[in-house]
TrEMBL record:
Gene Ontology molecular function, alphabetical: SUMO-specific endopeptidase activity
InterPro entries in the record: Papain-like_cys_pep_sf, Peptidase_C48_C, Sentrin-specific_protease
Superkingdom: Eukaryota
Organism: Gasterosteus aculeatus
Family: Belongs to the peptidase C48 family.
GO cellular component terms, A-Z: cytoplasm; nucleus
Protein's name in the database: Ubiquitin-like protease family profile domain-containing protein
Keywords noted in UniProt: Hydrolase, Phosphoprotein, Protease, Ubl conjugation pathway
Any one of the GO BP annotations: protein desumoylation
Domain Ubiquitin-like protease family profile: 1-108
PANTHER family: SENTRIN-SPECIFIC PROTEASE (PTHR46896), SENTRIN-SPECIFIC PROTEASE 7 (PTHR46896:SF2)
Length: 155
């Protein structure tokens, strides 16, 4: 049932060929794939039950594998895919979840963490001020794109 609700999200992408997956969950999460796959939960509010989030993601991956690959069977269990809740910079309000998710993804992609010990300690990964500036960067990008499209449209 859960897979049915989101199966179109990856219909044009084989997620099993990717090195990293960023999975936004309304309350927190993100996976990464070193030699042995690992789910790294990055929760900017520390609200989620990390084990529940990981169980849901493993269930999704199990169904997605069966739908996409079929055989050979693969099991996404806590033994075959470890998980950890990372220490990451925390937000100080209830409205910046998305901005923090974008900053986590940007920081990770700029400097991927591929060799690590659990639990992963990234609490000094970036300053809070950088997240505050993210909204202005997004606004500027949207306005720049809008102006560019309007200029092209008028020609």
């Amino acid at each position: 049932m859960r897979h049915q609700r989101v199966k179109t999200w990856t219909r044009h992408v084989d997620i099993f060929t990717k090195d990293f997956l960023f999975v936004p969950v309304n309350q927190d999460l993100r996976p990464q794939q070193p030699p042995r796959p690992c789910i790294l939960v990055m929760d900017s509010l520390k609200l989620s039950c990390h084990e529940n989030v990981c169980r849901l993601l493993r269930d999704y991956l199990q169904v997605e594998w069966e739908v996409r690959r079929g055989t050979p069977p693969r099991r996404f269990t806590s033994d075959s895919m470890r998980s950890s809740s990372c220490r990451v910079p925390q937000q100080d309000n209830s409205s910046d979840c998305g901005v923090y998710l974008l900053q986590y993804a940007e920081s990770f992609l700029q400097n991927p963490v591929v060799h690590f010990d659990l639990p992963l300690k990234l609490d000094r990964w970036f300053p809070r001020q950088q997240v505050r500036q993210k909204r202005e960067e997004i606004r500027t990008l949207i306005l720049t794109m809008h102006r560019s499209q309007m200029k092209d449209f008028k020609c």
